[in-house]
Amino acid sequence: MQNTYYVYITTNQYRTTLYIGFTNNIQNRLSQHYFDSQNAKKSFAGKYNCIYLVYYETFEYPKLGISREKELKKWRREKKNKLISDFNPKWENLNTQTF
Questions:
Q1: Cα gap 31→95, rounded to integer Å
Q2: What is the domain partition of the chain in residue ranges?
Q3: In whole angstroms, what separates CA 48 from the centre of its chain?
Q4: N or C: which end of the chain has fewer CB within 10 A?
């Protein structure tokens, strides 16, 4: 059985904060972010309400995805904004996509 791995970026309602993460179950991870934003607010995504998926990439191998996540986290905000805008020009909420 082949797994799919995701590097993803979520943001808050006002698009002022970005969260970059890595997972093999993106729908579950988004649910965790939402739950934390409504309850404990223990994670970065929960504390800053980064619950809106605006960007993702898929990977066949986890090492490649983890490397990409680390790379994106080092980027300046302007470069991250361009990456998101090239992929999702209106920064639409992609949470309801089928994965």
A1: 9
A2: 5-87
A3: 13
A4: N
* Rounded Cα–Cα distance for residues 99 and 95 (Å): 10
**With DSSP H G I counted as helix, E B as strand and the rest as coil, what are the percentages for the chain, rounded to 5?**
40, 20, 35
- Where helices occur in 1-99 by DSSP H, the ranges are 26-38, 44-47, 62-74, 77-87
Q: How many helices (H) and strands (E) does the chain have?
A: 4, 3
CB-based contact 57:7 (threshold 8 Å): yes
Cβ atoms of 44 and 19 within 8 Å: the answer is yes
**pLDDT (tens digit, 9 = 90+) per residue, 11-65?**
999 999 999 999 999 999 999 999 999 998 889 999 999 999 999 999 999 999 9
pLDDT value at residue 1: 58
**69 φ/ψ angles, rounded to the nearest 5 degrees:** -60, -50
